Amino acid sequence: MARVTLTGGPEGTRLERAGLQHAKALRDGFNSGDAAASTRWHLPRPLSSPNPKGMRRYAIMRDDRLVGTCRLWKPQYAGLELAIAIFDPDERGRGTGTFAVKKLCEVAFVGVGTHRVELGVYPDNTAAIRVYEKCGFQREAILRRYVHHEGEFRDLLWMALLRRDWDAANGGRR
Amino acid sequence: MKTYVELPPTWLVGRKTRLRALEVEDVPFLGRCKIVIDKQARGFVVQTLDGRDIGALGVFVSGPHAAIAVGFVDDVRYVDGSATDALKVMCKGLPRSLPLERIEALVPVENHRSLAAHERAGFEREGVLREALLEDGRYRDAVVFSVLSEGIERWLESR
Predict the structure, then answer these.
(1) A14 — contact with chain B (CB < 8 Å)?
(2) What secondary structure, in 3-state letters, does A11-28 show?
(3) Is residue B98 helix, strand or coil?
(4) What is the complex's ipTM, to 2 decimals?
(5) Is A174 part of a structural domain of the chain?
(6) A145 φ/ψ sector (left φ>0, alpha ψ -120 to 50, else beta)
């Protein structure tokens, strides 16, 4: 498996495999900020396959502080699903999310070797959509009433990045 | 192909097709239906009203969502209304016992007859998922269709 470096984000941000040492900070993060308002936990399970290889969680760290979390997980349709949350509103707009999404894609395509990374985002979350589009994700579908969130069913914008697009944008397979 | 003297019991009966439970001896037949039914999904065999097996249907339910897929031995079944009818029978049957919000279906983009059958059945097109369906060892683009609870209720009232 090719090695992917997880450091080198803006202002020294880096990714770290999430472990028990991050559990408390993760809990506090999801409970304090407004990340929970745009982060969904429950989706229906896919028709496809058992657990794919390459599922992993990361903590987004700056110095010794946890600023967010992201993961590659079992997909709804195919490939791997990406999810990210940045807890502190002050941390937004500084490139941290873009860095984490790009790193995750690199892990998925170079490290794991999947053919597709997909994700769902609330259609009104324009900041997040801009980040995903900057990383090469394309809008695929509006899945109507796909998630149950705070008492109502909500639509989800489904986006995906294919391996061939990622290869083209990153100068071929490394 | 299995022919019954006596029709197997089912309450999933439509205008052109009936759905019976999948049995172990149907496995070779499934292979000819151009459909993969996941272990976690429920499988049904689509029959004509006089009991000839013509295709298969799979349903996967997870909480308020369900996914559905049909496949037939003969592509003519997409055109003659059997596919539409089988989809409708299942989509009307499911919410009788389950509080469903959404039923979805993925159809390969090249399969125009199947696409049309889903549209006739009342599914709405939501978008194209690229390289999302694994078929014969390669990934194909799939149109994602869905029908929501209001759509299901409208069907239930219509008949």
Answers:
(1) no
(2) HHEEEEECCHHHHHHHHH
(3) coil
(4) 0.85
(5) no
(6) left
Correct CATH for B17-158 of 3.40.640.10, 3.50.50.60, 3.30.200.20, 3.40.630.30? 3.40.630.30
For residue B130, which residues of chain A lie inside 8 Å, CB to CB? 116, 138, 140, 160, 162
Whole-structure pTM value: 0.87
Residues of A numbered 18-47 whose beta carbons fall under 8 angstroms of chain B's beta carbons: which are they? 42, 44-45, 47
Quickly state the pLDDT bin for B154 (edges 50, 70, 90).
confident
Tally of structural domains, chain A: 1
β-partners of residue B56 are B45, B71
Each residue's pLDDT tens digit, A20-50: 999 999 888 888 767 766 666 555 555 555 6
Residue type, B98: L
- Answer whether B109 touches A (CB < 8 Å): no
Reading the block at residue B115, the tokens are 């696409």
Distance separating alpha carbons of residues B142 and A28, to the nearest angstrom: 40
| CATH code of the domain in which A103 resides | 3.40.630.30
Q: For residue A146, list chain B residues with Cβ-Cβ distance below 8 A.
A: 65, 102
> Residue A55 is part of which domain span?
10-169
Mean pLDDT on B28-39: 84
Tokens coding A54: 């390459």
